[in-house]
Amino acid sequence: MCKQCDLARFTRRGLLTAGLVTAAAAALPSLPAWAQSPPNAISPDEALERLRQGNARYAANASTSKDYSSGRVARAKGQYPFAGIVSCADSRLAPELAFDQGPGELFVVRVAGNFVNEDGLASLEYGAMVLGVPLIMVLGHSSCGAVDATIKVVKDGTTLPGHLPSLINAIRPAVVAAQARNPADLLAEATAENVRLNVKSLLSAKPILSDLVAGGKLKVVGAVYEIATGKVMPV
Fold first, then answer.
1. Which residues contact 94 (CB under 8 A, 6 or more apart)?
2. Between 20 and 30 A from 19 (CA), which of 10, 45, 149, 233?
3. CATH class belonging to 40-234
4. How do the domains of the chain map onto residue ranges?
């Protein structure tokens, strides 16, 4: 085979895949001979049910994940999170607590307004392809300051200082779409629409996430956390 043909084989996608697989092999510990699969080798639906049950415990003030020292030595050797969470940076929302999960269970990407940019997407691709996360949840929340600020900018046409406009621009499409429906509660509708748009974006994110979704190895869902009750409701 000619050198040019050899070079053609190494597409950007091929290099990325090879790099991630190599990283996975180096970063994760070898499983014992009796282990048929890693701890997070579960179906997307099972992962979603774990989140649902964990949130039910949290909302009922019956959380079980309280011994954070347990498993420290094992976690030093590798991680096997069963769900990825795209969460707002709001201090009132802590995904591990809201879903009653301990260290090593969730792979969380946080940014004000819980939207996915290029860096966040790369992190989620790593979680799904290298760590084997079978589920990604985009998690908005009630009384979101980032969404509320975007609503004010859209309505008043004001310009915010610093780098805040980049945050506003990421959330603006959700606000505009929600505003067109004339909802009774624009903040709640825009929050839900922001979740829906980011779920849609992740579902079609090529080449990694979209391929995993098409193969049934990954599910992407959306939800909103209600601060007052602690409950997570699907969107």
1. none
2. 45
3. alpha beta
4. 40-234
